[in-house]
Amino acid sequence: MLNHMVPDRAPGLDRVFHALAHPARRAILRQLCGRERNLSELASPLNMSFPAATKHVRVLERARLVRRRIVGRTHLCRLQPKPLAQANTWLEGYRKVWEGNFQRLDALLNELKSDPSPTPHASARRQAKRQV
User: Pick from 97, 90, 98: which is nearest to 17 by CA?
Assistant: First the structure.
C-alpha cells in the first residue's frame, strides 16, 4: 500500500528529515526559495553568527538540499529541491493510507448515524449506568 519508490531505509531520506528537523534550517530553505543568497544574508534574519549559519548550511549540504559555491570570499548558497521531492514522495504514500483510513471512518460514522437500532455497545453502557 505504501510507495516503495523511495525505500524506508534510504540514508538520503534520513539526512533530509534530520536537516528539516531544525527551525533555523527550514528558515534558511525558505530564504533560498527565491534566489541564491550568501551566508551573511542567511544568518542575518535568524540573529545568528556566521559560524552558526555555516554549521546549519553544512547540514543542509550533507542532505543535498543546498549547494554552496565560493566566489572569492563570498559563500553563495542555492536550493536543490530534488531531495525535498523524494521526501514528499515518501510522505505521499502515508497520506494516501491516512486518507483511506479517514474515508472508512467517515463511512462507518455515516452508517451509525443512519442505523436507528441501538448498538450492542450503547446497550451495555446504559446497563452499566443503571447498575451504578
Answer: 90
Of 60, 68, 11, 63, the residue nearest 39 (C-alpha): 68
Q: Which tens digit of pLDDT belongs to each residue from 12-40?
A: 899 999 999 999 999 999 999 989 999 99
Give SS3 for 60. helix
Q: What is the mean pLDDT of residues 91-110?
A: 86
Alpha-carbon distance of 89 to 95, in angstroms, equals 10
Q: What is the pTM of this model?
A: 0.69
87, 16 Cβ separation under 8 angstroms: yes
Helices (H), 11-131: 11-20, 23-32, 39-43, 50-62, 82-114, 120-131
Query: CB of 76 within 8 A of CB of 69?
Result: yes
Average pLDDT, the chain: 85
**In the beta sheet, which residues pair with residue 98?**
none
d(CA 44, CA 53): 9
pLDDT of residue 128: 54
